[in-house]
Amino acid sequence: MDSPDTDWAGVRLHVVTGKGGTGKTTVAAALALALAAGGRKVLLVEVEGRQGIAQIFDLPPLPYEERKIAVAPSGGDVYALAIDPEEAMLEYMEMFYGMRRAGRALTKMGVVDFATTVAPGFRDVLVTGKTTEAVRRRGKNGRRIYDAVVLDAPPTGRITRFLNVTQEVAGLAKVGPIKNHSELVNGVVKSPETAVHFVTLLEEMPVQETLDGISELRSAGLPAGGIFVNMVRESLIPQAALDTAVKGRFDPGELVLGLKAAGVADGAEASAIAEALAEEIAEHAHRTSLERAERESLGEAGLKSYELPLLADGVDLAGLYELAESMRTQGAA
Length: 333
What we know:
single chain, 52% helix, alpha/beta, elongated, eight-stranded mixed beta sheet, Rossmann fold
């Protein structure tokens, strides 16, 4: 279970969503590492069939089985599962109807594809069902198999329907295994053991989609978690200079003096370099001003917020550990 000194003590299912391009899978992977740190066991699940987990951990495509993929700081283990809806359907038929062989025959006939096409929500039920089963699963000693499960979920635009579809299916099936299964899933998804985290950038469209997603989630009675602001660029220019540049009052003459004092350039060359630098400073100041406004907008959601640095060398395994450590430092895991 999560450490009691984290912001999400007691949460066992961490759902991670975000607009495309915000680094949703990267954040989910780093969160799994952060949660596993200190000797815990965490399952990282993906549901969109993109093999994003395999790519980010530099592994071959993952089969439909839970397997260890990484060791977290201080000895924790991260396992991964790439859910295949067809295999989940076969498991479902065997679990509730004892019909695995019949299910394989139906698969060959294309009935499974037909069923999930006619009722696309059923595919989401299978996927969320497999995930929540991992959350509930216990070993022979009665203890939970996984201390936490991290779900790399669909994008923000459809996260509410994806998580709430079990309730819709339960409404269609009044009795029987499907209804019971849906109620089990819904019981986990809407419980205090679940938190839906949003990944965003400090840009207008991702921020607005995040705020809309949080609003929809709350309207559906689903548990909003935290906001992970990804790819944050640290400013190396003093705030006073940025404020001056935003107002158009930055004096390139100060740069000329600095260039001369440092022995970098002199005369006309120093003036030309100073003018170019002043333009870049003005652009940087404008961007940081916009980012400050987006931070304020996110703050209105009233959720915990975590800022993750832009990785200069791109996202590799070392970068994932860096992000995981940043999460732990900020109390997210």
